[in-house]
Amino acid sequence: MKLKLKMLIASTAVMGAFAAQPVLADAKPHVVILATGGTIAGTGATSTTTVGYTAAKLGVDQMIASVPELAKVADVRGEQVAQIASESMTNEVWLKLAKRVNEVLAQKDVDGVVITHGTDTIEETAYFLNLVVKSKKPVVVVGAMRPATAISADGPINLYNAVLLAGSKDAMGKGVMVALNDQINAAREVTKTNTSTADTFKSPEMGVLGYMQDNKPHFYRMSTRKNTADSEFDISKLNSLPRVDIVYGYANMDRVAMDADIAAGAQGIVQAGVGDGSVAAQMMPAFRDARKKGVIVVRSSRVGNGIVARNGEANDDKEDLVVSDTLTAQKARILLMLGLTKTHDTKELQRMFYTY
Ligand code: DGL
Questions:
Q1: Which atom of ligand 1 has the smallest separation from the CA of 122?
Q2: Nearest 10 degrees: CA dihedral of 221, 222, 225, 227?
Q3: Would residue 328 show up in a list of annotated catalytic residues for this protein?
Q4: Alpha-carbon span 109 to 28, nearest angstrom
């Protein structure tokens, strides 16, 4: 008995010694928040106003101040890159934002970037950045589905989780991520699936990359496609992007919209076609005329999931068309815009759609 007592006392003393040691907290990561507007910065007339509020009202410093917990987990500073509702996002803001992300991430003392953004076009901005950011450091795009003034506003916890994720070494090399509602989605596959609920962002068939829980990310998969530092696209010297428009497919469609887009200067057309990117008989003459003018035509689908197969619903080889693989039309447009900054060769462009 005595020996056991002595061992217990000895082990307690050892534990006590450890507990007395000053536990040096890991140095906090440096995270930069680039704000662009959206509901996360939105305000409503009352605390129960969750529609009919005004997006893009709070500045980045106000958002940071509204979440004092940020300072406990990271050294955070903010910049206001834009102040817009994201349905008004433009190529000009994209280029300004992307250049600033690359400048900030090139700074050795910056560990990651968070971009606050409206949710309407968050998936497009995230995919654009996924193709042009030249760093493996974490880039997290975050938004909210309820304005900052609402009961149970989701912006503060989404912003807190986004900063944790951007400061996490585990998030390196994952490509640009969209993080809301405790879920981490990849820029390539994420899409808004509900007009107004907090769980709107999903990667329908590919699934989330992981979750935010207990103040850290938990990853379960990675995207298989090239992104960020492995991408071939360089926007550092670009001040504009080629015009690419989307033509929506539906029963009884005609060529008016496509012809108007080309007359307005579109260098590329993405058809969000029915089914497997099918081309209506009455549309094929418009496709051929577009090709004769050197306009690139990409067959995508309005369906949202699945592969648009080459030479499936159209003879792509004969008609010299490109297929979008699994990219939605809105993301195919982004890849085609960037592809057209490098080439008009359809074989090269098709390679890009199988690469990114
Ligand atoms: N106007 C929409 C936008 O800025 C609001 C949606 C949101 O941010 O959640 O994208």
A1: 10
A2: 160
A3: no
A4: 11
Pairing status of strand 201-202 against strand 191-192: antiparallel
- Can you give the CATH number for the domain in which 214 is found? 3.40.50.1170
Cβ neighbours of 303 (radius 10 Å): 15
Q: Can you give the residue range of the structural domain that contains 327?
A: 244-355
Per-residue pLDDT of 292-334, as tens digits, reads 999 999 999 999 999 999 999 999 999 999 999 999 999 999 9
- 170-182 pLDDT, tens digit per residue, is 999 999 999 999 9
218 plus 257 within the same structural domain? no
Please tell me the distance between residue 90's alpha carbon and the centre of ligand 1 in angstroms.
14
What are the residues whose beta carbons fall under 8 Å from the beta carbon of 174, sequence distance 6 or more? 138, 186, 209, 219, 222, 223
Is-contact 21 68, C-beta < 8 A? no
Whether residue 39 has its Cβ less than 6 Å from ligand 1:
yes
Asked if residue 90 belongs to a domain, the reply is yes
Q: How far, rounded to the nearest angstrom, does the alpha carbon of residue 218 sit from its chain's CA centroid?
A: 18
213 and 267 assigned to the same domain: no
Q: Are residues 144 and 47 in the same domain?
A: yes
CA angle (242 as vertex; 133, 130 as ends), nearest 5? 20
145 pocket-lining for ligand 1 (C-beta < 6 Å): yes
* Structural domains of the chain, count: 2
Query: Are 154 and 118 within one domain?
Result: yes
pTM: 0.92
Separation between Cα atoms, residue 208 and residue 219, nearest integer Å? 9
Contact between 97 and 81 (Cβ < 8 Å): yes
Tokens of 211: 């979750």
The CA radius of gyration of the chain, in Å to the nearest whole number, is 24
